Amino acid sequence: MAAVYRTHMSIIGxxxxxxxxxxxxxxxxxxxxxxxxxxxxxARISKILETLVQQGLLEQTNSDRACKYxxxxxxxxxxxxxxxxxxxxxxxxxxx
Amino acid sequence: MEFVFEIILNLIGFVVGLAIGxxxxxxxxxxxxxxxxxxxIAFLSISIGFGAVGAGYMIESLVIxxxxxxSWVQTLGIGIQTIGYFFIAFSHSIKSFFPKSRYFRSIIVPxxxxxxxxxxHIIRSISFILLIYGTxxxxxxxxxxxxxxxxxxxSGLGLLALGEFxxxxxxxxPESVLYFISISTKIVGLGALFVxxxxxxxxxxxxGGSL
Lengths: 96, 211
Hints:
The structure holds two protein chains of two kinds.
Chain A lengths: L7 H14 L7 E2 H8 L3 H13 L3 E6 L2 E6 L1 H19 L5
Antiparallel strand pairs in A: 1-3, 2-3
Helix pairs in contact in A: 1-4
Chain B lengths: L1 H30 L2 H31 L6 H27 L5 H11 L6 H26 L2 H23 L7 H22 L12
Helix pairs in contact in B: 1-2, 1-7, 2-3, 3-5, 5-6, 6-7
């Protein structure tokens, strides 16, 4: 089976989905957990997480001296819009 | 009467293209996706192309009244539409052949790929090839995703291709009904493109940052 290339946007979608639906506890998801779930390298996910926090889509929490991430209300809105537009593009046989 | 029919058909094309273009633009603004950026250019070009031909007919019937639309107006409108078809086809080619990098491939690469012709039938034949390519790629995407919306889009692109072919053929028979059939087919094609889009739940997001 051919490998499916994931766009930058779809990786962001996966990270936000994980922080919304699959966080292990109320404090949020750790970087290690997100790396495993979103299947992205540490270097790449660090940059993406920084951007998402800056944009207000993720909230950073400190728990047991480790950074954890939770989706923000704005992130939820973004994720909903992202899914709508992903479907829009998929109707054209394209990926966003 | 003939002009009224052409004006209506071209204006429908203008409105449908504009609606899809605006939705794509909203999507691009909210997500920053290069794919949605290309779809914005594609459908706004298609809309402007139909609008230019429709406006040409309107000006001709209301102001000039010579009984025949200027051929350069028709060529200009079809040329602008071709740019739109090119961007649809190009988005597919990027997905298939250039799976990496971002904005460079959105805008810069097409400038080196698209040939600059102004003769109507050559433009139509280019449109036809681009649309056939887009149709085939969309059908292949449907085979993977099995999403019903995708088959509507494939049908729409296929009908646009058929419309372009008939339009090109009507150059050989200028007084026949082929042109009407061509533009009607293209309008039905645009309608088919709009069907799945109208069902997508798109909400007005306020996120404007660059991701």
